[in-house]
Amino acid sequence: MNADDLGSPRELTGLQRRRALYQPELPPCLQGPRVRVEFGDSTTSIDPKCADIVAQAFPHTFGQKLVHFLEPWTTVPDAHVIEEHPPIRVGVLFSGRQSPGGHNVIWGAYAALKAQNPHNVLLGFVGGTEGLFAKKTLEITDDVLSSYKNQGGFDLLGRTVDQIRTTEQVNAAISTCCDLSLDGLIIIGGVTSNSDAAQLAETFTKHNCKTKVIGVPVTLSGDLKNQFVETTVGFDTVCKVNSQLIGNVCLDAVSAGKYYYFVRLMGGKASHVAFECALQSHPNMVILGEEVALSKLTLMEITNKICDGVEARAAQGKYHGVLLIPEGLIESIPEMYALIQEINNLHSNNVPEDDIPSQLSPWAAAMFKFLPPFISRELVLHQESDNSAQLSQIDTEQLLAHLVEAEMNKRTKEGSYKGRKFSSVCHFFGCQARGSLPSNFDCNYAYVLGHICVQIIATGLNGYMATVTNLKDATNKWRCAAVPITAMMSVRRHLRGPGAVPIGRPVIHPSPIDLKAESYAVLREKASSFLLDDFYRTPGGIQFEGPGTDTKPITLTIEGQDYLGDIEILQDYLDKVRNILKPGCSREILKAAISSMASVNDVLKVMSAPIHAELPLYHFN
Length: 621
Known about the structure:
This protein is an alpha/beta fold and 621 residues long. The protein has helices at residues 14-20, 51-57, 102-116, 128-133, 142-145, 167-179, 191-206, 235-256, 272-281, 289-295, 299-314, 329-332, 334-348, 362-370, 373-379, 396-414, 431-434, 440-459, 518-532, 554-559, 563-580, 587-608, and strands at 35-42, 65-69, 80-82, 89-94, 121-125, 137-139, 184-189, 212-217, 260-265, 285-286, 321-326, 424-429, 464-469, 479-484.
């Protein structure tokens, strides 16, 4: 599709037309043009030890207050109510990989803008960040949106470089926003895009640019996840589509009874997609990058563990199986990570791809030579826009299948394995899911986030991300908020332990799987059953109507986090304590309160200290 075709009316199928009629739900706090806001406490960094560094890098936007949007019936003494809405102009762009539901963010923002003032204008930047730099816009109207509501893809506006980082790029963005007299700029994307949004907001404030920059958590990988962001738009849909495909593969495997399927799943550095799909489809094995990194498993140790699983199944007369591999696994393996870092450094020094092998260190060169040629070629491909390796282009599933086959042949020759010859089939499930029709959950979630963006702009906030918590419950119980993006930023530590030194610039880092979470415990508990029993599940296609339409990610429902709700509970308790301890209360009550608060303070200090203990390794047996 040419850039000129972006935003053109689509020819919709019957199902697409029916989906376009679906009206997403809104929680009560977003219904109607009135904006009711409660300003909470000032925020800090997600890693308190990095707070000073983040504050230095973002002197104008660090430490801003957490903002809650209130239901009409909520009684809050210091609530701000905004009823007058002069006309405003807002820009919006896609930045990052396509993720199902992205179009609904634009629809939600458009609907909220028109509800506040029919003269409001929403301009979409055609071609993502490059469209922003070139001032290439498309005015969003009812007609433009009509064939993109509840649809997959990013083809309403498209995307390109996905980067607003260099001085030239930032200056171009400032020029565009000033020339177009934008009151707000909505950036739809993942960790990298929202990190850039934070920097852009800081720069806009510094240069007295009136445009308020707002970030929206939209990424299929689900790795923009923290206290404030429970999941991202698109993650639910991608996992459901992939789980359907995996379930089909599982049935094919057990039907043929002679192949091992190595399935790599798109999802970036973290393993959230593979993790969720494992819970939904019950494959025989899943290799999580977080487990590998924690236990520092080498490539051959991973290979041997898979082979041990193959032998265990062969002992039961089973010569088939399904193994899930996250896209980012390759970077979690210590020796592969070191090799990739060395290659990245050479790329950063503008060394041509063909010359990289000859400039590797002796150790890295030996590792590079050990790898199959197809992997070697893929490792030297040019970097992504965030200067990382092109993980989607590295066939980790084929590498593991190759190594497992070699090891099984070796065990056969040695006589330790007496089963049938090992045979594998490899798949990469990547783009198949990211253009899918979004689930009802993603449609609702994205539409709500679009509304929140407009509320944030109306409140005059800059450098915030639109967020929703309590997502596990019905839409009418969702809690909508605006969170300073700097509150989600940190600086990587060069070493582990007390002597760790922060290095690099503050950014939002991809959130790994929490190996202490209840959802991970569920997977560990079922690991042996998954390995030895063909306990496969076939979820089928996404359900848009009838039973199954309201299903949400298993990890989301198990973990059941509601950070903003917990803050409200804490605030309620603090208010009760203040009420009890008014001047004039008895000395006994005062002493009891001091003693209790001292104990609480000591406990929180201990809990806030860095934890260096390592978690046990996830085993196949």
